Amino acid sequence: MHMVLLIDDEPAMGSLVESWISDMGMRLKQVSGLEEALLAAEHETPDAVLLDLALGDEDGLAILPDLMAAPALADVPVIAFSVHNSREREAFEKGVEAFVAKPFRSSDLRNALAEVIS
User: Fold this and answer.
1) pTM, to two decimals
2) Is 101 helix (H, G, I), strand (E, B) or coil?
3) Please, which of 23, 26, 48, 65 could form a disulfide with 2 given CB 3.0 to 4.6 Å?
4) Which residues, other chains included, contact 118 with Cβ-Cβ below 8 Å and sequence gap of 6+?
5) Domain chopping of the chain, boundaries
6) Mean pLDDT of all residues belonging to the chain
7) Overall fold of domain 2-113
């Protein structure tokens, strides 16, 4: 079973995403920021990372380089999401594999995950 690491400070987002991906043979681990993500990845390497670019105390694009430099996450594809489409280009320039605009439909997220997890 594939594990997806969700970095989002809104607990409701985790419940929603989990309901959308469970029938794809994926399970979800949600954390609220960089430090929690790094700790979670040390225990189990995820198959993909979903990164909210608008975190409470952190900016998703600002933490992206540290996230991608972590040994446990270096080869893990990152899918960024944000209500601000203006951040899409910068997200791709910083190395994300996919970008999903919020609010997104389940099919948008499921398609992005299917593309990055083989």
Assistant:
1) 0.95
2) strand
3) 26
4) none
5) 2-113
6) 94
7) Rossmann fold (3.40.50)
